[in-house]
Amino acid sequence: MTDYTVTATLHVETSADHAQVQSLLDQGLRELSSIAGRYGVTITDSSATVEEGSAG
């Protein structure tokens, strides 16, 4: 089985606060694990970190 490390970058514009955005991403990663299983992919570790900044 091949092992991959995947890096993704998201630029998000919202009126939600930092904690709400972090919660959204954490939930999305949990759901991604379920979806990935449908394709024969196993996600063994995942994390997302929200940093405040300005889009380019």
Quick overview of this protein structure:
The protein has one helix spanning 18-37. By secondary structure, the protein is an all-alpha fold.
Question: What do these coordinates show?
Answer:
Helix content is about 35%, strand content about 0%. The relative contact order is 0.18. The protein has one helix spanning about 20-35. The chain is an all-alpha fold. The chain is elongated. The mean pLDDT is about 90.
Radius of gyration over all CA atoms, rounded: 13 Å
Average the pLDDT over all residues and give the rounded result: 92
In terms of quaternary structure, the protein is: single chain
Q: What is the share of helical residues? A: 25-40%
Low-confidence stretches: none
Q: What is the helix/strand order?
A: H
Terminus-to-terminus distance: 38 Å
Beta content comes to under 5%
* Counted beta strands: 0
Q: How many separate helices? A: 1
Class inferred from helices and paired strands: mainly alpha
Sheet with most strands? none
Features:
mainly alpha, elongated, about 35% helix, 1 helix, single chain, about 55 residues
